[in-house]
Write a structure and sequence with these properties.
mainly alpha; 5 helices
């Protein structure tokens, strides 16, 4: 459970910025669905998750900060090594969908997010497994069908 954020303008501003950042991350994902391992889309996705994690941490939104940071730490090596193939993108999408859901459930008055981390853990494990599978050599990977 997240700690309580002091009331004020910071939380509503964060929620607006977080939705904008999440939309940007989803646009990066759409780009990656069109072009495997596009370096600009990967960099955008990683930068967006990093900014979201830092902003959430500053406000004491521990669940959002932890989850965004964990996503970034899983995706950054795959992007850096150009191993974020289309086979892993459904898992990325599921993770971003959960993040969207979490942002919607933050109490805009208190900043509280009552959340069981088990769904986060399952989706992060699924993503890690998908990334391991997409890191196979190109000769082992199925062709990218568009």
């Amino acid at each position: 459970m997240d700690s309580c954020v002091p009331p004020g303008a910071e939380l509503p501003e964060f929620l607006r910025d977080a939705q904008r950042l999440l939309s940007q991350a989803q646009e990066c994902l759409l780009h990656l669905q069109l072009i495997d391992n596009d370096p600009d889309a990967c960099r955008c996705l990683n930068d967006t998750l990093t900014r979201l994690a830092k902003r959430a941490e500053q406000l004491g939104l521990d669940e959002v900060a932890h989850y965004s940071s964990a996503l970034h730490h899983l995706l950054a090596p795959a992007c850096g090594q150009r191993h974020l193939h289309s086979t892993a993108l459904p898992a990325v999408e599921a993770c971003l969908n959960l993040l969207d859901w979490q942002l919607e459930l933050i109490d805009a008055q208190t900043g509280q997010l009552n959340l069981d981390r088990s769904e986060q853990a399952v989706l992060l494990d699924d993503l890690a497994s998908a990334l391991q599978g997409s890191a196979r050599s190109p000769s082992e990977s199925p062709p990218n069908v568009q």
